[in-house]
Design a protein that fits this description.
By secondary structure, this protein is an alpha/beta fold. The protein is built from 26 helices and 14 strands. 56% of the residues lie in helices and 10% in strands. The strands form 4 sheets. Strands 3-2-1-4-7-5-8 form a 7-stranded mixed sheet, sandwiched between helices. It has a 3-stranded mixed sheet with strand order 12-13-14. The longest helix has 36 residues, at 3-38. The protein starts with a helix and ends with a helix.
């Protein structure tokens, strides 16, 4: 009996599984197409503005988020084009750095409030969210207000400036509204993160639209989800005030089903491109293979394993097909990497047979299932082609061209994640232990990611009345190649150094101005080597809430930040000063 015969025995059930999954995906493909053809047109900007803005609360559950939470709040509070929003930051009493960072944000912005859990953490994200809800109720009593909608977000989220306007529009008819969620683009070498880019693009363009068209429940993405007050109060009444199930590791998925079971309308907002960008919540997902496996193990545990515990067959019967789709990964994730190996073996033996001018042994051994194999491969190729198209819509063709590589990488990430999920879930049940919140390490997007909607420097100078429109056009016409606009305007004598740096601070959203002498510590100013401070024209001047405040006359690039981080593990917060002001600081504190 040849080795090809043994391979063929394995290939049979695998081919059948691939065919079933391919046909299942084809159903969603057709439903998504029908959904796009039949959905109402997207609202215009005028229609978005016509809807009275509901009072909204944004819940952010935090555990060891001191490095990112201040940046998240600062960026989103100042960027959101929505007047009636309040942030509630949930923290634990045994997480002092995060409490300090959250209090700093609370002191800086009047619509940011702290919600301290009554017990030490970490518990689960759902438990933290429940206590944030209780803090919101107290806030309402104290301030005689009532929030009409609650949104959930994570500490690394980059909320689209217009997201709340879209949610507010669709909340007219729905009790749960989900804005799309997309990964931020990264370099090709970040394969693990690229998998998230591809999968979320496909999910938000195809799966969610098909699901909605066929009447399936909309699972919350965990972020960018708006719940009406009616829905939250119904959930609280139904489950003894546990709006978010504290024992569940994927409370977002669970709540999507619970809202649908209550008979309340749900809406997934299709991806719309406005102002040159998709209207979606953006974030970085794990960049490393190991961290991606850890995060997905939590997803698989909650969606594929815990959901069986929380609901009887009778409860889920109406949505049986969707639970099948959501849970099929428990088998598929274990099978798919093996099919990848068999595919490589088949290609290798085919090449070898052709080189030796011999019959391909595997073809003979699999002749009885050849049609199923061909159909399965064809459907898989169609599926990958669709993913390439969806990915290209968000990240461009250069990124999309390498989707097949990341498909294989994603298969192995899911394989290891499924093994870990089964191990941890089984171990917890055997030993009677609760499953804990396995927090994903969050990295807040860098300045380049945040500046997708920034104005040009010349436009800012004109709007500030530093120069006229005519002067700007004349300067652009006379500017030599390679010379920066600000430098050219200064050489022409049209602006002064102060005007230029005020405009740069506005363009890059960096605080501007020489630090008050009372805030500058001499010992902190000398925390970096003098050569490094001189090289990058930077001067540390304050440490607060786990952050190192740095004044400098250069815009903070990746190389500069990497260089500084060799000497400090604190999160960096930059203040822009003019070159003249930097020299004054250097003479005073470095000499």
């Amino acid at each position: 009996m040849t080795f090809d015969h043994w391979v063929a025995n394995f290939l049979g059930p695998f081919a059948f599984w691939a065919l079933i999954n391919g046909l299942d995906d084809l159903v969603i493909d057709m439903a998504a197409i029908a959904g796009y053809l039949t959905q109402p047109r997207a609202p215009t900007e005028a229609e978005l503005d016509e809807v009275p803005p509901r009072l909204m609360a944004i819940f952010v559950a935090c555990w060891k988020e001191h490095r990112v939470i201040r940046k998240m709040v600062e960026n989103n509070v100042t960027k959101l084009r929505y007047p009636n929003v309040t942030f509630f930051l949930g923290v634990y009493p045994n997480d002092a750095p995060t409490i300090a960072a959250a209090r700093d944000a609370e002191a800086s912005f009047p619509n940011v409030h702290l919600a301290v859990c009554p017990h030490n953490g970490p518990t689960s994200k759902a438990d933290c969210l429940n206590w944030i809800y209780q803090r919101m109720l107290i806030f309402e009593e104290q301030n005689n207000v009532r929030f009409e909608m609650v949104l959930t977000h994570d500490a690394e989220d980059l909320v689209d400036p217009d997201a709340l306007r879209w949610i507010n529009y669709y909340a007219q008819w729905n009790d749960m509204v989900q804005i799309p969620v997309l990964a931020l683009p990264t370099e090709f070498k970040r394969i693990s993160h690229g998998v998230y880019c591809d999968e979320f693009a496909e999910s938000q363009f195809r799966d969610m639209i098909g699901r909605q068209f066929l009447g399936g429940f909309i699972p919350s993405n965990g972020v960018g989800t708006g719940f009406s007050r009616r829905a939250l109060e119904a959930l609280a009444e139904q489950s003894n005030n546990r709006i978010f199930e504290p024992g569940c590791l994927t409370e977002d998925y669970e709540n999507g089903f619970r809202v649908a079971r209550l008979g309340m309308k749900q809406k997934f907002i299709p991806i719309n491109f406005r102002h040159g960008r998709p209207i979606a919540t953006r974030e970085f997902f794990p960049l490393e293979f190991r961290k991606a496996v850890t995060q997905r193990a939590r997803w698989i545990t909650g969606i594929n394993l815990q959901s069986w515990e929380f609901h009887s067959t009778r409860e889920t019967l109406r949505h049986f097909y969707w639970f099948w789709r959501d849970r099929r990964g428990l088998i598929g994730n274990l099978v798919t990497p093996l099919t990848n190996i068999l595919f490589v073996y088949g290609v290798a033996t085919l090449i070898w047979a052709e080189a030796l001018h011999r019959p391909w042994g595997l073809a003979y051994e699999t002749s009885s299932i050849s049609r199923a194999c061909e159909a399965g491969l064809g459907l898989q190729a169609l599926h990958i082609a669709a993913r390439i198209w969806f990915s290209s819509r968000i990240y461009g063709w250069r990124h999309a061209a390498t989707v097949p590589i990341r498909v294989v990488a994603g298969n192995w990430i899911n394989f290891f994640a499924t093994c870990i999920a089964i191990r941890d879930f089984t171990g917890a049940k055997i030993h009677g232990l609760p499953l804990k919140w396995v927090k994903t390490e969050h990295a807040y997007p860098n300045r380049a990611a945040l500046m997708t909607d920034r104005k040009r420097l010349g436009e800012i100078l004109v709007s500030n009345r530093s120069i006229t429109r005519e002067q700007l056009e004349s300067a652009l016409a006379s500017k030599p190649g390679g010379r920066r606009l600000g430098e050219h305007l200064m050489k022409l004598g049209l602006i002064k150094e102060q005007n230029l740096y005020i405009a740069l601070s506005l363009q890059n959203d960096i605080p501007f101005g020489k630090p008050d002498p009372g805030l500058v510590s001499t010992s902190i100013a000398r925390a970096l080597p003098a050569a490094l401070s001189r090289k990058w024209k930077v001067l540390p001047f304050r440490i607060a809430a786990g952050e190192l405040y740095v004044a400098g006359s250069y815009l903070p690039g990746e190389e500069m930040q990497s260089d500084i981080r060799r000497f400090s593990t604190l999160e960096l917060r930059f203040h822009l000063v003019t070159p003249t002001e930097y020299e004054e600081l250097a003479r005073q504190y470095l000499e």
